[in-house]
Amino acid sequence: MINLDRSPGRLEWFMGQVAHMDLDVVRVSAVDAKRIPEQDVERLRQLSSGVNSMSPAEIACLQSHRKAWQMIADGDDEWGFVAEDDIHLSADAANFFKSDRWIPANAEVIRAETDLGRAELSYRNWGKPLGHELRQLKSAQLGAAGYFLSKMTAVRVLEHTSRHVEPADVILFSSIGGLLTEMQVLQMLPALCVQDMWAPGGALGGPLTSQIDDDRRRFHRHDPRSARRKGTAKLVYEVARIGRQFAKPFRMAMLVAVGRSVFKRVEIETLVNAGPLPSGRAS
Question: Are 184 and 257 in contact (CB under 8 A)?
């Protein structure tokens, strides 16, 4: 579980959720964007494709996930679960942490979270352990707050991110700058966890909201190294985006008709009651 040293309230809140689950929770001390030397930020930014703006907070987030990946790679278990400290867990999540026997052979990553949006998924259902479908993820999804990662895949993504620096969710769950189409990535339906900002009663700016989004917006607005499209490039992109949106319903219908994909909203069921949220806000 990834947690900043200066966010003990979030750690206490998270541990309150899992207190009854009989889990061996390992805390990963998150890399603090405020403590990364500027020269290291610049060195790592040079390894980015430029498609994604790698702000200091984004780089720190990736490095924090890499610490978790290293623990899985060095550990004895074949699978590990990586969690950020702002996720709400479903009431049946503990059933999936007791063993990895429910995981299909050849799976490499299992995305257990949702932002409650719709995803393109394989027509084939890889299994339905304890009532949760497992389908191959085919569309890019934002967020890397809760996922299962195999030991072999941890080694692979560590090696990849030693040469390619992109946001952690892009590396795992996008084909543009990431490895989505090169790995067997499955999505759980219903999901096992959801970040606070998407949970019932949650909101941006709440006590579990980190400032990575604020940092990203400031970086886009004020830093010339931002990858945000401007001027003609932005106009061309927006025109193309409108064309893609117009064609999207026809593409979806065709893929469903030929049995290639299904398009489903990834829901989540009853959440654990973790008690009151921590006071204040992470920075």
Answer: no
11: phi > 0 → left, psi -120 to 50 → alpha, else beta; which?
A: alpha
How far apart are the C-alpha atoms of 76 and 68, rounded to whole Å? 14
pLDDT in tens, 10-31: 999 999 999 999 899 999 999 9
- Beta-carbon contacts of 146 under 8 Å, excluding residues fewer than 6 positions away, are 81, 82, 83, 84, 87, 111, 112, 113, 191, 192, 193
pLDDT above 70 for 206: no
**Share above pLDDT 70 across residues of the chain, in percent, rounded to a whole number:** 80
Give this prediction's pTM: 0.86
Q: pLDDT by residue (tens digit) across 78-108? A: 999 999 999 999 999 999 999 999 999 999 9
User: What Å distances lie between residue 2 and 54, 55, 73, 83, 97, CA to CA?
Assistant: 19, 19, 16, 6, 17
Rounded CA-CA distance 73/267 in Å is 30
Q: Is there a contact between 3 and 27 (Cβ–Cβ < 8 Å)? A: yes
Q: In what order do the strands lie in the sheet with 261-265?
A: 79-83, 146-150, 109-111, 185-189, 133-137, 118-127, 261-265
Give me 135's structure tokens. Answer: 């389908």
Residue 240 has a CB neighbour count (10 Å cut-off) of 10
Element of type H or E holding 124 = strand 118-127
Residue 79 dihedral angles phi and psi, to the nearest 5°: -135, 150
